[in-house]
Structure formats: C-alpha cells, structure tokens
Amino acid sequence: MPDVQPASEVRTAVDAPVGRITLNRPKAINALTTVMVGAIAAALDAWEADDAVSVVVLDGAGERGFCAGGDIRMFRESALARDGAALEFWAREYALDARIAGYPKPVVAIMDGIVMGGGIGLAGHASHRVATERLRAAMPEVGIGFFPDVGGTHLLAAAPGRTGTHLALTGLPIGAADAVAIGLADAVVDHSRLDELMAALGSDTPDAAIATVAAASAEPPPGGIAADRAWIDACYAAGSVAEIVGRLEAREEDAAQAAAATIRTRSPTALAVTLRALRSDAARSSLQACLEQDLRIAEAFLQTPDFVEGIRAVVIDKDHDPHWDPPGLGDVTDVDRYFAPPA
To answer: Does Isomerase count among this protein's keywords (predicted)?
Structure first.
C-alpha cells in the first residue's frame, strides 16, 4: 500500500476500494493539530469523487490509542496570547466532524486504545464505529475547565437515560462494552483482528465485514453502566449540578459516592455549562446545531480563568491542584454568556 505522505502527521493511502487515513503522531497519542485537521479534510474531499474509493477507514498509528484529543498546550497558549489560533482550530475541527457525519461514503472509525475529546469528534460521528477490547473512551473536558465539545453533548444527550450526563459531568472513561451500551460504538472487534478487518473491508461491504470479524472476536470485558442505571438515572435527573451531587452523596452505592467526589474536583463553571449544553435544544436536535453552539461556548471559554488554570494543573505543571474561579458549585452565576448568539 503506497503511502501518499510518508513524513506527515496524517498518512493517507488508497488500496482500492479502501481509502485509509491514519493519524500519525503516536508519541502524542495522535493529538490533533490544525494541520492534521486540514489533511484529513483534504483526503475526504479528494476521495468523495474518486470511484476507486468506496469506503474510508480512520485509524491511529502506534499502540497507545486512536486519538487523545486536540493540542491542549496550544489551546492554553492561544488563550493567553489571545491570538485566535484555538478558535481557528475549533472552527475547522467542528467542520470536519460535520463532514465525517455527512460523508456520502461509509466511514469506518477504528476506536482502539485511548479515544478522547477530539478523537470522539472524529470517530463518534462516523457511519461505522468499531471499538476494540482496548478502548478507553472519555470526554474529560470538565477536568480542565472546558466542556464536551466536538458534538460530544449531541452524542451524550442521545445516550440511554442519564448515562450521558454521568459521563459528561465526571469525565470518567469507559470501555468497549459501555461504549456500545450508550451508543458511542457499533461493534467490538479484537485488536488482534484489525488486519483481518482491513482485508475484509477490501472485499465486502462495511456492514458485512464488520459483522463477520466481530462475530469471530471475543466478548469485551463487561461494563458497569447498565448495572448502575438505577442510581445514575435517579441522581442525574436533578435540575442543577449541586443537586446532582447532593443526590449522589445520599446514595449508598460506592460508585455513586465516587462519582460525587469526582465531580467536586471539576470546574464548577465547566460543569454548569456542560449540564445546560447537554439539555439544550441544540444538543438534542441535530449535530450541526450542536456544533454551532459548541463554537460559541468554546469562544467564551477562551475568556475564562478556569480553562487556562485547568490545563496548567493537568498538563503543564501536572500538580492536579486547580484553583477554580468561582470555586463552589453554587457560586456559578454567569452561564448565559456561553450560549449568547453571535453579535
């Protein structure tokens, strides 16, 4: 299979009828840059009218994961410099997510290893989402003073019951079984059978190829979401984050108590905005409406202290001791501005 861009952070190749796009920053768990987003979009544009390509595969280089998200350090630097680079990235990224969702040919995303943030944006909106038993998927943005963007609230709002709210407000990772259970993945294939899947995609329809290899794969380790639905649905139906935490803390289940403790470490502002975004008409109506809302919210977060502080605590200094402003769940009063329409 000839490699079109051998030195690129995105490798593209055609082995008819499969067009393959491989994210190629393995040391960074294939975290997305603006250049990478452009390269993926260019490949999709080129292959849309190419009769030699009937199916597109998205995967990631290296053993650690498909994609850990966006270039977080760049986001912080851009917020501090107010240079517009982060906003430009998000605008292009969200447009790519919408492009993948509406692509006229099947897009098969291989969700192997770590798939978080922007990785969910790429894979979660594909027509065929294949997880492996190694999947560790999450939207952990509230832990850095941000929110589940890339249409993440659209995906999580559609999850059964209040499971999407639980995952959005805690940022906790899930495995393959839970990803299927909440509608984030469609099938599970053994990591050791991915080459077999690629070969099958070259000779059969995506549906048939995936079904065949999935049937030959082992059952993934069981998840916990289904077993926890009773307390998840009861607690996360509350009207505010503070009330949700109160309900969780009143439960006897250890998992509910742990969820409450986790939420209390997250940015109160990010939590309030995330809950409203999940319950907004935009998140429930269409991906496009959600992505438009995401861009408005993301732009507002660039002006907040929590976004810069969260990245410092988690990524830069790694002390995991963010000082949120405001600090308490009941102290957040200015949520409307994150949802204000463009002036």
So the answer is: yes
Q: What local confidence, expressed as pLDDT, does residue 341 receive?
A: 83
Catalytic residue among 141, 178, 228, 309: 141
Give the chain's domain count. 1
Annotated active-site residue in 19, 70, 113, 175: 70
Whether 118 sits among the annotated catalytic residues: the reply is yes
CB 22 within 8 A of CB 60: yes
Domain of 291 in residue numbering reads as 10-339
Q: Which of 59, 71, 133, 149 is catalytic?
A: 149
Which stretches in the chain have pLDDT values below 50? 1-6
Q: What pTM does this model have?
A: 0.95
Supply the pLDDT for residue 4.
42
DSSP secondary structure string, 44-79?
HHHHHT-TT-SEEEEEESSSSEEE--B-HHHHHHHH
Task: At 266, list the tokens.
Answer: 């997250």
Q: What is the CATH number of the domain that holds 43?
A: 3.90.226.10
5 is a domain residue: no
Q: Mark whether 141 is an active-site residue.
A: yes
